[in-house]
Amino acid sequence: MTHPPYLYPGYKSTALRAPGHELVMPKLGPDSVELTSPVFGHQELGRLDWDLTRQHSGEPLGERIIVTGRLLDTAGRPIRGALVEIWQANAAGRYLHAGDQHPAPLDPNFTGAGRCLTDADGRYRFVTIKPGAYPWRNHHNAWRPAHIHFSVFGTAFTQRLVTQMYFPGDPLFPFDPIFQSIPDQRDRENLISRFDMDTTEPEWALGYQWDIVLGDTPMEA
C-alpha cells in the first residue's frame, strides 16, 4: 500500500475523519459535479505567488531555499499546466493561523503560502524559507519534522491531491506518526526531497529537488 490508511491509531486526528461506514457511491455523475465546480486558469495566479520571500515589504527570516521538481504521471510523462500550491510553517516552526498558538515568533514578512502552474516539462518551482519543526500535541513530546505541504489540482477543486515534502536526514522521522503511517519504507522515502547543488544558487539559496508522481507519491487520506 503506497498511501497511508484512513485510520492510523498513532495519528490521533485520523479517528475524527476516517470513514465509519462503507462507501456509498453517489448517483450524481462526476461530469455533473465538474460542471458546477470552480475551475482554474492562468489569470488566477499573482506575479509573486511562486516566491514566498517577496510577497511582503521586507525579507522573511530564515534559510532561503529553492524547491523544484516535476509533476509526472505513472508512466513518467509530465503533467503540464497543473496548479501546485504549497503552505508551510515559518523558520521558527509556526503557521500564520489562529489555531497555531505555540510560543514561537510569527514573521510579519512571511505568510507561508504559494502557488504556481507546471510548465511544459511538468516542472514547478518555489522560492521559500526552510520551515522549522514544531510541537503538535498528538502525544507526549510530539514534534513534526520540517515539511512543506503540497496540493496538486486538476482543473477543479474536486480534482485535488494533498501530500507533504520532507527534508533529508531529519532526526524526527522515526518519531512522527504521520510519516510512519505510510506502510512501506520505500514509499516513505518518496516523500523526502534531495539536496541538489545544480539547483543551489551561489551566495543566495540552497536547492532541493522533489518529483511528485501520481500513483506513486503517497497522498494524504
UniProtKB/TrEMBL annotation:
Broad class of enzyme this protein falls into: oxidoreductase
Molecular function in Gene Ontology: protocatechuate 3,4-dioxygenase activity
EC identifiers of the protein: 1.13.11.3
Keyword terms of this UniProt record: Dioxygenase, Oxidoreductase
Domain Intradiol ring-cleavage dioxygenases: 67-95
InterPro entries (alphabetical): Intradiol_dOase_C, Intradiol_dOase_core, Intradiol_RC_Dioxygenase, PCDO_beta_N, Protocat_dOase_b
Pfam families noted in UniProt: Dioxygenase_C, PCDO_beta_N
Domain of life (superkingdom): Bacteria
Biological source species: Actinomadura sediminis
UniProt-recorded name of the protein: Protocatechuate 3,4-dioxygenase subunit beta
Recorded family membership: Belongs to the intradiol ring-cleavage dioxygenase family.
N-terminal signal peptide: none
PROSITE patterns: INTRADIOL_DIOXYGENAS (PS00083)
